[in-house]
């Protein structure tokens, strides 16, 4: 695996909505390089005969019937919200949205 | 953010299609009408009090674990089969990561490179340019399962109370409702008919989903939504389906969102073709972006610049095990598929003896089911069509309603039309009287017979032919006549049949019986 460029880190920071200063970006590039290098050791594992795995248990088709189950009341749902209005969660507006 | 700007320049549509060839990709999201959400047991009722249909799972609270709705998977498989798709033997859900407040989890559970259904097609009917219709095959890339997002209500900056800024109010009742996204392969070869093909495809898909009974498919309520990808490439040769044209690489596409009616699908594609053509015609380049459709102005405006797919950093959903429909299950579900709407129409058209043009009028008036039920209630197909497409259609149009809802609103049923038809064929009413009766029924005065009785509508009938026939039949059957005279009234049945035959069915059996008994009493 190649190391991350400064642009890669800036891009990832943007996607994760993390605001990094220039100095922080420089620092992260260096630190992430070290982390990546350590993690890259797993690539030395002999996995030629091993199928990729996303789930540790050999289970499929775990489903539930289409039957309504009680959930939360609006008051309960909103009880942890920092701001609310008109029975809704109040959140800062995201610029991209229309 | 949508910026309201001066209208974009557009090229005249005819000029646009003379110079450029359109390629489309249509993405339709359809909400399933399951009782519960995709991954939790919350109800899915439309229009409920905000945040009253939520739980820790669909609010993304820490530690909550999703479980797949069995019915939603079945619906997805049935949709895939109805779209002539292959059904995955094994597929996974994936997390689509993004930061919008409409998904409290900060990701949407979707499917990425392992859709449950793939490689299908839907045949749609379009006009062939000479008054007839032809089939245009739209190829389906995939149909995958995901969940709907919450609904945001945006509050303007001037009244904003969160630090004086603009803010949004979010209702998560819709978050987690099962959604199937159906994606076409690039639709090429439609040429100038591209807007019509787009509309015909969404319309055919809506009919199919309705026939499958998997969704309410109400575009105006958002239970079916369409995104239209459109690009242009230079024209090559006269035939949009010719080799020369197919060899030209695709142009840069835009994705128009928020297209929520059949008419808008057609208009949005047409507008986008004209807009892109104007830019390309001046030597400009198309920006790959999301555009927003505005129903009121009939235009699209620039949205955000499209982000790359890997910006969503999809990865397999660790909290849900793979879905692996067995071939037995798939075959079982295949057995539950309804007759495809297109084939059904063909069958009914031939049963009813309608021409292509007549059938198209019937379909456009949304009268197929009404006529089918009217015929089942005993009327002839031609009469059923005549009555439904006459006054009721005109009035529904004038009220801006479709025929089905208009009739339902009045309580005007196929049985009424069949009864009206019987009053005409039995000779009680002539055509103009029947129209008066229909008026009365539509005005809520009662059933056709009640209206005819109340208004005293009845043809004065000349019974001499019928009486002569009764006399002839009695004379020809002295034995039976004797029995009836002797009190065996049930023997009249044999004579009634013969009289009806002599009258070629144009008589009222009750009346015939009364005449026979009167003669032999
Ligand atoms: Zn829930």
From TrEMBL, chain A:
<comment type="subunit">
    <text>Heterotrimer of A, B and C subunits.</text>
</comment>
<dbReference type="InterPro" id="IPR036113">
    <property type="entry name" value="Asp/Glu-ADT_sf_sub_c"/>
</dbReference>
<dbReference type="InterPro" id="IPR003837">
    <property type="entry name" value="GatC"/>
</dbReference>
<dbReference type="Pfam" id="PF02686">
    <property type="entry name" value="GatC"/>
</dbReference>
<keyword id="KW-0436">Ligase</keyword>
<comment type="similarity">
    <text>Belongs to the GatC family.</text>
</comment>
<keyword id="KW-0067">ATP-binding</keyword>
<keyword id="KW-0547">Nucleotide-binding</keyword>
<protein>
    <recommendedName>
        <fullName>Aspartyl/glutamyl-tRNA(Asn/Gln) amidotransferase subunit C</fullName>
        <ecNumber>6.3.5.-</ecNumber>
    </recommendedName>
</protein>
<keyword id="KW-0648">Protein biosynthesis</keyword>
<comment type="function">
    <text>Allows the formation of correctly charged Asn-tRNA(Asn) or Gln-tRNA(Gln) through the transamidation of misacylated Asp-tRNA(Asn) or Glu-tRNA(Gln) in organisms which lack either or both of asparaginyl-tRNA or glutaminyl-tRNA synthetases. The reaction takes place in the presence of glutamine and ATP through an activated phospho-Asp-tRNA(Asn) or phospho-Glu-tRNA(Gln).</text>
</comment>
UniProtKB/TrEMBL annotation, chain B:
<dbReference type="Pfam" id="PF02934">
    <property type="entry name" value="GatB_N"/>
</dbReference>
<feature type="domain" description="Asn/Gln amidotransferase">
    <location>
        <begin position="369"/>
        <end position="520"/>
    </location>
</feature>
<dbReference type="InterPro" id="IPR017958">
    <property type="entry name" value="Gln-tRNA_amidoTrfase_suB_CS"/>
</dbReference>
<dbReference type="Pfam" id="PF02637">
    <property type="entry name" value="GatB_Yqey"/>
</dbReference>
<comment type="subunit">
    <text>Heterotrimer of A, B and C subunits.</text>
</comment>
<keyword id="KW-0067">ATP-binding</keyword>
<dbReference type="InterPro" id="IPR023168">
    <property type="entry name" value="GatB_Yqey_C_2"/>
</dbReference>
<protein>
    <recommendedName>
        <fullName>Aspartyl/glutamyl-tRNA(Asn/Gln) amidotransferase subunit B</fullName>
        <ecNumber>6.3.5.-</ecNumber>
    </recommendedName>
</protein>
<comment type="similarity">
    <text>Belongs to the GatB/GatE family. GatB subfamily.</text>
</comment>
<dbReference type="InterPro" id="IPR004413">
    <property type="entry name" value="GatB"/>
</dbReference>
<comment type="function">
    <text>Allows the formation of correctly charged Asn-tRNA(Asn) or Gln-tRNA(Gln) through the transamidation of misacylated Asp-tRNA(Asn) or Glu-tRNA(Gln) in organisms which lack either or both of asparaginyl-tRNA or glutaminyl-tRNA synthetases. The reaction takes place in the presence of glutamine and ATP through an activated phospho-Asp-tRNA(Asn) or phospho-Glu-tRNA(Gln).</text>
</comment>
<dbReference type="InterPro" id="IPR014746">
    <property type="entry name" value="Gln_synth/guanido_kin_cat_dom"/>
</dbReference>
<keyword id="KW-0436">Ligase</keyword>
<keyword id="KW-0547">Nucleotide-binding</keyword>
<dbReference type="InterPro" id="IPR017959">
    <property type="entry name" value="Asn/Gln-tRNA_amidoTrfase_suB/E"/>
</dbReference>
<dbReference type="InterPro" id="IPR006075">
    <property type="entry name" value="Asn/Gln-tRNA_Trfase_suB/E_cat"/>
</dbReference>
<dbReference type="InterPro" id="IPR003789">
    <property type="entry name" value="Asn/Gln_tRNA_amidoTrase-B-like"/>
</dbReference>
<keyword id="KW-0648">Protein biosynthesis</keyword>
<dbReference type="InterPro" id="IPR018027">
    <property type="entry name" value="Asn/Gln_amidotransferase"/>
</dbReference>
